[in-house]
Design a protein that fits this description.
Blueprint lengths: L12 H12 L8 E7 L5 E9 L7 H17 L5 E7 L8 H13 L9 E4 L2 E4 L8
Parallel strand pairs: 3-4
Antiparallel strand pairs: 1-2, 1-3, 4-5
C-alpha cells in the first residue's frame, strides 16, 4: 500500500492518530494485523506501508526478532529513515486485550531506538495508544 506523501508529518500524538485514521479509512478491523510504516527525522512518513495479517494472539520470540530484523535492515539501507510506526489491528471488543498489550510490550522492547511514538491499536470502536505493562514503558 502507498500513502499520500502530502500527509502531515508525525509531530504529536494527534498527528499520529490522524495518520492511522487516514490509513484505515472507514474499514472495521476483522482479524489480527500489524501495520508498519517508516518515517524520517522530521516525522515525514515514507510512501511504503506494510500490513502483516494473521498475527498470533501472543507474540513469540522468533516473530518479534524477525520483525526487529526487518525494521533495522530497512533503516540501515535507507539513511533517511530514522524510525518506525506500528499499529495493531483487531476485531472484538473495544476494551484492552491481551493481544495488543503483549504485542506492544514485545515490540517496544525489540524496536528500541526505532519507535519514537507509541504503538497504537485499532479495535472496532477505538483507535488508541496501547498502554505498556512491562519495563519497556
Amino acid at each position: 500500500m502507498t500513502i499520500n506523501p502530502a500527509h502531515a508529518p508525525i509531530t504529536s500524538r494527534s498527528t499520529l492518530t490522524a495518520f492511522w485514521r487516514n490509513v484505515l479509512g472507514a474499514s472495521r478491523p476483522q482479524g489480527r494485523s500489524l501495520w508498519l510504516a517508516f518515517h524520517d527525522e522530521n516525522g515525514r512518513v515514507h510512501k511504503a506501508l506494510t500490513q502483516i495479517d494473521g498475527l498470533a494472539l501472543r507474540p513469540d520470540a522468533d516473530a518479534v526478532a524477525n520483525l526487529a530484523l526487518v525494521v533495522s535492515s530497512i533503516a540501515e539501507e535507507s539513511p533517511d529513515i530514522t524510525g518506525a510506526l506500528v499499529l495493531l489491528e483487531r476485531g472484538g471488543t473495544s476494551g484492552a486485550s491481551p493481544f495488543e498489550e503483549s504485542w506492544a510490550d514485545a515490540l517496544t522492547a525489540a524496536l528500541e531506538g526505532y519507535l519514537r511514538w507509541p504503538v497504537m491499536v485499532a479495535a472496532p470502536d477505538k483507535l488508541a495508544e496501547v498502554p505498556l505493562w512491562t519495563s519497556a514503558a
